[in-house]
Amino acid sequence: MSKTISEDVGHRIEELSAQIHAATAELVQLSAEYDDVGGWLGVGLRSCAHWLSIHAGVDVGTGAEMVRTGHALEALPQIAEAFAEGRLSFDKVRKVTRVAVPEDEQVWLDVALNASGGQLSRICRAVASALDAADPLLAGHALQLRSLRMWWRDDGMLQVMAALPREDGAVFQAAVEAAAWSARLRAAFSAPCGRWGRRSHRVDVRRAPQRCARSRVRGVGRQRLEDANSRADTPGRRPR
Q: Model pTM?
């Protein structure tokens, strides 16, 4: 393929992408309006997203994102305008509407227009994670959702499934790693070393795992303190 043909194909892809973005913007807006008026209500239909999965051929999760994004754009007119003009894709818009609020809309618009899709996804994910960690309601919700299940499988193995908040998860992880380290050390020092069966050095196997666990928990504590200090001036949690 010659350079001229390659450039022509590239330009055509950009043009089609902009047209698709603009059409998707209208579809997202109409989806939110349809949800508001309850036009999707009917026998056997659970939500507007369910209706969209039947009549627009999208996955239920995608339909839910279309409705959510459409509602979020009602408070973000500049981002909505850029979306309607085909300058922003649906992927970018649905990411940015999870973290943007009217007060910082211009900043997020500039970021969305200049970052690639992958870059914007990473930025929004990091910001959303920081905002969630600062939200006391989410912290309480995480405590309510925490769980720990253990059961013996038919092959004799013990299987563990846990869902833990960050602090509890760090303690649990440190305990598991300490136990594994202890087992490895005991196995290593149970075998003779050297010609005369003597060890060249001694390690307090009993205390090493505890030091590891304490170090891990202290590290998590320091990180939480640094996160709290960095979020001291951060506004409240963004709407979902």
A: 0.58
